[in-house]
Amino acid sequence: MDFSSKLLENAVDAMSQLPGIGKRTALRLVLHLLKQPEAKTELLAQRLLEMRSNINFCSNCHNISDQTLCEICANPNRDRSIICVVEDIRDVMAIENTSQYRGHYHVLGGKISPMEGIGPGDLTIASLVQKVKEGDVKELIFALSSTMEGDTTNFYIFKQIEGASITTTTIARGISVGDELEYADEVTLGRSILHRIPFETSLKNN
């Protein structure tokens, strides 16, 4: 792709680093920004810088937050004894949109994937195990995607907390095998949360 401006080329190269954005789409976005009033582009850049510089991760569940504690963990009406284990912030948003869950979350920050060099130490598994050992958690809901990596992560955590007086469940398989939670429709995901099954049962079915 030939550019008449090095500045334009640099902007397109930077924009194309975003997930799902190819060079052509990046060019279209950059040219759109060029047509906008300069103040709009400056505001976009300012908002992105503010987010990158000031955003926090909840000290309790590792969700993205503006404060030390996210709004969910700080809400006294949420049930602290139930923790839904998810991969990332997108899964929290997906489950919250169902309005069917009133417990807390624990965001792992990914899934165990040896092929990608991601091991248990790269995730927030240790702090989750510590929560369970403290004795305040009554139920752990595994809500990772039904992929090999998701199942491996679920099983690893299950073995780490084995022997603890806690109920372990997994979301019902209304979610197709191999699907990511963020792409599930709200009704299906909501029913999967409500009709969760014991984790041991899911192991027998695999």
Q: pLDDT under 50 segments (min length 5)?
A: none
What fold name goes in the CATH topology slot of the largest domain?
Dna Topoisomerase Vi A Subunit, Chain: A, domain 2
Question: Which architecture of the largest domain would the CATH scheme give at its second level?
Answer: 3-Layer(aba) Sandwich
Task: Determine the structural class based on helices, strands and strand pairing.
Answer: alpha/beta
Structure description:
- There is one protein chain.
- This protein has 206 residues and is α/β, with parallel strands linked by helices.
- The chain folds into two domains: 6-54, RecR Domain 1 (Helicase, Ruva Protein, domain 3), CATH 1.10.8.420; 58-205, Dna Topoisomerase Vi A Subunit, Chain: A, domain 2 (3-Layer(aba) Sandwich).
- It contains nine helices and seven strands, in the order H-H-H-E-E-H-E-H-E-H-E-H-E-H-E-H.
- The strands form two sheets. The protein has a five-stranded mixed β-sheet with strand order 4-3-5-6-7.
- Helix 1 packs across helix 2 (23-35).
- The longest helix is centred in the first third of the chain and has 17 residues, at 38-54.
- The protein is elongated, with a radius of gyration of 20 Å.
